[in-house]
Amino acid sequence: MGDMRKASGGLVVVLGLLGAGCGSVSDNHPTPNLVPGGGIGSGKINGYLNVYVTDDDTRAPIMGASVRVGPSANSMPCEALTDSTGLATFDPQSCKSLNGPVTVTASDSGYAPSTWIGADGANMTMTIRAMHPTPVDTATVSGTIAGWESLPAPATGHNTIAIIAASQAPNLGDRGNNLTQPMRDIAVAGSAVTTSIPANACVRGALVDDCNWQLVTRTGLQAHYAIIVDDDQNGTPNDMTDDVLTVAGWALDTGLNLTAGQTVVSEMLTMVAAGDMQPFTVSFPTLPAGMSYLASYPEINLGDAGRIAIVFPVLGASLTMTRVPKIGASTTGGLAGGTYDLLAAAQATKDLNEPASLVWLHGVDVSKTVAVPAWLPPPTAIMAAGGTYGFTPVTGATLHSAEIKNPDGSRAWSVTIFDGSTSFTLPGVTPDPLVGGTDTLTISALQIPGVDLGNVAFDDAQQALTALSSDQITFTH
Questions:
Q1: Could you give the CA distance from residue 366 to residue 371 in angstroms, rounded to a whole number?
Q2: For a Cys-Cys bond, which of 202, 296, 353, 448 suits 344, CB 3.0-4.6 Å?
Q3: CA 456/CA 277 separation, integer angstroms
Q4: CA pair distance 325, 336, nearest whole angstrom
């Protein structure tokens, strides 16, 4: 079903940056406190600083990572390596005149460095992303949809199709939210011929009828769901580009908790009755300058079980209403306690991600039209020259971030700006993580109402994010 983070190129870096350190402070020396997902806290820096470094993907502490305290121009910064718990400590003996705010860089072989500019918390947990991350833990599930065989036969020239997916992990940047599904072969009626369809699909038509789906899914708490559509082939059965798809129903299975390598068979998705569906209507503001494409997705937020991302149909200028399962309805009780969210994204064109602006509305009331507020404009005047990077900030943004990508699209460096700086340089790291060639610099602006940048758990802040905008340039390194 795709990963919502693709709605904005800048969202990827943000999600890895958005956990808080709250350890007690005694004589200015804070108790070390590792925060899964990253964070900052324990009051302002006053002579002492604890920095944990963890893997951005697995969240495991990294031993032997380098932590550098000081701006890039400082020829004698404070430096330390993390111990077996991922902790590097700085005190008046090892780092004289240590007071915040400071610039901190965490790096290690095989990882893209992360730099925080203007951070002021005596406890920090920084995450860095592996350049070649380990495979995502997955489980494999197979099953069917109860009552599939009783659905009305599709009209001539139509197919009934169901796409099965798992709720997305609460952390939007979780790689388990973007798993590739395999294909499977199904028999063509009246012949020995088979045809291939996505493994996580059911299809019913004149020549095929199969609902033995298979799903590669993430681990942890989750729900599984199917969106059932009527596919009008529009008289061209061999050309899907002009097909007209209409939602015909839903099926659900909730309360699941899967472990790495687990195989589940005979899972049964239960149809949602028509009376347990309700309309979800959205209105949109005028698109920002330089953007012509709009895509919006309702979500059912299930807390620790993640979010059911309703990516079909895509809502936009020409389609502003869909139908979604009622929360807590009698036949969808597994959704009790959930809430409705809305993710709306504007970008340059359908195929060009930048510039982009994203709005995330939490806990919306679907009994009335959900109005998307004004878009957050993207940063402007982005530049990269002679090792200096700069931009014009977005008024009203809580903070800005930067991500530099190598020519192959991999992250080379991430930067989070806490103090309002609008230009920066990067310290020397060996080996240089920036590969020669055409690199990409993306600048993002974030709105996180109520967040305290000196005492923040980034996982919590991520859930409070309401808007993000970004733009990018390419430069030669």
A1: 10
A2: 296
A3: 38
A4: 11
